[in-house]
Amino acid sequence: MHLEIIKVLEWHIYHAYSQQVINKGLEVINLIPNTYEFRVIVVLGYTQNLDWLINNKGKIDLLEFKLDNNSDKRQTEIYFAIAEEFIKRHTEADEVVQILNEKLNAIQEINTNFYPLSFIDNLTELVEQDFIFKMCEAIIQAPQEPLANSFGYFLNKVRQLNINKALDIAKCALDTNSYNINISLAERCWFWSHNLQPDDVFIIKSLLNHNNINIQNRVLSSLKMISNQHPYLVRKLALDIEVGSSTELANNLCNIFDIMYGILPATLKDKELAKILAKLEKVENIDTEEISKFLAYTSRRLPRSIIQLFLRRIERYQQESDRNYKPLPYSGFHHNLNGLTKSNEYEVILRDILQQSLNMTYSTRFWFPKLFKEVSLGFNQTGLKVLEEWINSKEADKIKTASCLLSNAPKQFVFTHSTFVKNIIEQAYDLGDKCYEQVSDYLRQSATYGFRSGLLGQPFPEDVSLKEQASAIVEQLSVGSPSYKFYNSLITWAESEINSKNMLGEEELD
Asked: Alpha-carbon distance 5 to 10, whole Å?
């Protein structure tokens, strides 16, 4: 209860503008008795301003106190003094673990986090190594208790004293299959890198193959931290992990092969890159920074494999019943696939996507335009050249497919590429009303879909701009021509939206 009161009052003392509020908060804190029980709870559950609280009992303003350069030194002395008092009262390892768990449970009951490591660090400095060994064994016997969350920290203390004993304890801990203990091992196994043993590798492999994704993720994060010291081992372990459908696992896997801080992807063989790509096929969502970075790099080395991955993901989406599966990012990758343009097969790759798009279904029609946009880097000149081959084919299905891929083009596309767009319209018109209407609808989507914003009672600026730009083009066209009708339909759409917004504003004002 005292700890909860302190945390509430501390906020007011630190943030209050009123000196009266600050003084009252300090006064209440000063009433809390400085007992042994209070001090133990405080060092386990309150660490930020420990010196201010214990040495000064809130006698001066917290902000003023933080300016004291000697505070950190005094805080360290507090930890040591309380640890010394604690170990004099509790002389058996089992008892120490039991008491600490009781205190930590009490802290958890008031929905407060605990921070026992600084206290534990001082505590273990005061006891013999056998005492620490017995503490580890006692924690293993109570794997559901809160101290199990710090087991990896204790184990690292043991490793500094006796590596063989540490390995025996670690294997016993692994056998418990305790989530708390295993995740603590996973978080701390990077510490083993300077003296890595074969049994350590066995433990890491076991954690990587655990059926809990959180544990696997923590191990992958630890592996990245030791990748500079053990690059070949980390690479092998990472390549062997199965990520399944987990986006987080896939992201952490790709994060290991990072140009700046991990294993250089350039050290991977093509078949190893391909192995990672294969793992990404089942991943629920590949819209992450690290996956995107990995794909951008791989696009330079394995352009064909990248495209095949995307096509397989779109096919899987059609077959999957789980709608959480997203074959591509909604808003594009974090990193462009620039490497594709360096390939001698770049045009062939774009044509392959066009060919696959010809068989679009209702469920995949949303994704193929996004795929073409990504691969053509936002409809570059090569992409438009390949599209134009189909647009000039005199075949309705090819023209409709090409215009469908353009439905995801930037809003300004129909204006910045008006000559290109007029050609599509004319070609579609020559093939009949049905083709013309379908193509016009796809192009209209590119100009009208997307986010808009504005003020109450006023039209969206995007709609006003759309009307103005379409009107400027219409003035240059023959009245009644196919292109005239298309751009005039944009004016009609924009006017409808503008009038609707004006009417809505009038109703709000009424």
From this structure: 8
463 contacts 447 by C-beta, under 8 angstroms: no
Please give the distance of CA 74 from its chain centroid, rounded to a whole number.
39
* pTM metric for this prediction: 0.84
The pLDDT confidence band at residue 63, using thresholds 50, 70 and 90, is very low
Do the Cβ atoms of 231 and 196 come closer than 8 Å?
A: no
Q: Round to the nearest angstrom and report the end-to-end CA distance of the chain.
A: 54
Q: What are 373-429's pLDDT values in tens digits? A: 999 999 999 999 999 999 999 999 999 999 999 999 999 999 999 999 999 999 999
CA distance 300 to 24: 65
Query: 257 with 298: CB under 8 angstroms?
Result: no
Count the residues in the chain: 510
Please answer whether residues 291 and 254 qualify as being in contact, where contact means their C-beta atoms are separated by less than 8 angstroms: yes
Tell me how far apart the alpha carbons of residues 510 and 508 are, in angstroms, rounded to a whole number.
5
The pLDDT assigned to 452 comes to 76
Q: Reduce the DSSP state of residue 346 to 3 states and report it.
A: helix
Structure tokens at 181: 């203990």
43 has pLDDT over 90 = no
370: its two tokens: 């996004």
Rounded CA-CA distance 172/138 in Å is: 12
Answer for the pair 43, 81: CB distance below 8 angstroms, yes or no: no
Residue 33, both tokens: 């008795």
Instruction: Quote the CA–CA distance of 12 and 31 in Å, as a whole number.
Output: 17
Query: What does the pLDDT look like over 130-145, one tens digit per residue?
Result: 999 999 999 999 999 9
User: How far is Cα of residue 119 from the mean position of the Cα atoms in its chain?
Assistant: 33
